[in-house]
Amino acid sequence: QVQLVESGGGLVQAGGSLRLSCAASGRTLRSYTMGWFRQAPGKEREFVAVISWSAGNTDYADSVKGRFTISRDNAKKTVYLQMNSLKPEDTAIYYCARGEVISRTMNEYDYWGQGTQVTVSS
What we know:
0% helix; 11 strands; mainly beta
């Protein structure tokens, strides 16, 4: 069993920064890809970023490319999402998830965290 717990969300003004963390317990994350998704009120959950187990490969949604950076520390079983130049449209609940391949598709991920709220004020 794997448990994923996100933290680091909060309220920030437009243009500000936040760093989200996703801490894992249970089986190691080392061999798995890790993704971040988000869900805004009234909208479907969408892909944000993903990182391979070795951190050698990453992928980002076009809407966050150049502003967000995904990274991981396998020794700490933690994945991060550094979010800079935040915009009001980034407001959402952010979820981390474990997968086996680099993918933007939700059904490629088998374990999910409970989410952390990010609110960006204008």
